[in-house]
């Protein structure tokens, strides 16, 4: 029996954690796919693990592990590390566990702090808390930071870029204050969602009108939603709660631009927009 430590890779799924004997330095990515696919007593046993299933963290970000090029970069980033590498495994065709089900706290989307890779030791954390406790200037800085963030969160709105139907690169408002997905009347007429000669009393002037279901692509994922007309003049498309619930959108109260779709784990590119009228006054979008 050999006493040599085998090469191990840690694997966290949304509902469990496991470890495999796998050498990142010498074994190929296809071998890792095969080992994971054959692993018994897992919630994905019998399914083929492949591109889109694996991710890993490095330098504060989450990276895909889909092909040989990704794996080469992963190998380089692990070079010189004495810790066992960690990857995250999830079937992209299945939803994440509901909030009422068990969620693995080691899975990157379910950690309280999902923005960093290295979490300090207990001693380091205790020291940091002690410094904060006895440092009045730190508390003052936190207070001013919170006031600054509250101001911009209140007056700014989250916007993302995506496509609706055949129209690409559309700036969309992400707002929980709306129930459905809406498109502005002028935008709808310009792109053929409603007739060019739509008269008052039709297509929304007489009430909320559903103009059908349309595919909406944000990030790498397309979902279909019922779309309604809107008289909102500031944005062509408004994504309300129906979109956010479908994509399981998770926002960060500290950083308004940090948005994750939990259905796929995608982090969306978000811009915070502060609207002003011709007099320079801030316009509130309710």
TrEMBL record:
Gene3D superfamilies named in the record: Acid Proteases
Residue ranges of the region described as Disordered: 118-138
InterPro entries according to UniProt: Peptidase_aspartic_dom_sf
Name of the protein this chain belongs to: Uncharacterized protein
């Amino acid at each position: 029996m050999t006493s040599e430590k085998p090469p191990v890779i840690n694997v966290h799924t949304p509902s469990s954690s496991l470890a495999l004997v796998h050498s990142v330095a010498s074994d190929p990515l296809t071998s890792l796919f095969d080992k994971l696919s054959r692993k018994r007593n897992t919630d994905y046993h019998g399914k083929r693990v492949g591109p889109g299933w694996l991710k890993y963290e490095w330098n504060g970000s989450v990276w895909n592990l889909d092909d040989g090029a990704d794996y080469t970069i992963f190998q380089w980033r692990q070079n010189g590390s004495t810790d066992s590498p960690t990857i995250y495994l999830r079937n992209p065709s299945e939803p994440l566990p509901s909030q009422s089900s068990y969620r693995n706290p080691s899975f990157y989307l379910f950690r309280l702090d999902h923005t960093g890779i290295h979490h300090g030791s207990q001693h380091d954390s205790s020291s940091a808390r002690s410094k904060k406790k006895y440092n009045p200037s730190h508390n003052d800085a936190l207070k001013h930071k919170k006031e600054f963030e509250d101001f911009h969160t209140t007056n700014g709105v989250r916007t993302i870029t995506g496509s609706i139907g055949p129209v690409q690169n559309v700036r969309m408002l992400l707002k929980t204050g709306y129930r459905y997905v809406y498109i502005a009347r002028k935008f709808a007429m310009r792109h053929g969602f409603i007739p060019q000669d739509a008269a008052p009393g039709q297509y929304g002037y007489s009430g909320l009108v559903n103009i059908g279901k349309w595919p909406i692509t944000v990030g790498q994922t397309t979902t279909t939603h019922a779309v309604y007309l809107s008289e909102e003049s500031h944005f062509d498309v408004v994504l309300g709660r129906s979109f956010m619930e479908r994509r399981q959108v998770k926002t960060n109260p500290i950083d308004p631009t940090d948005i994750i779709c939990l259905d796929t784990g995608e982090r969306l590119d978000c811009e915070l927009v502060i609207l002003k009228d011709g007099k320079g006054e801030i316009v509130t979008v309710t």
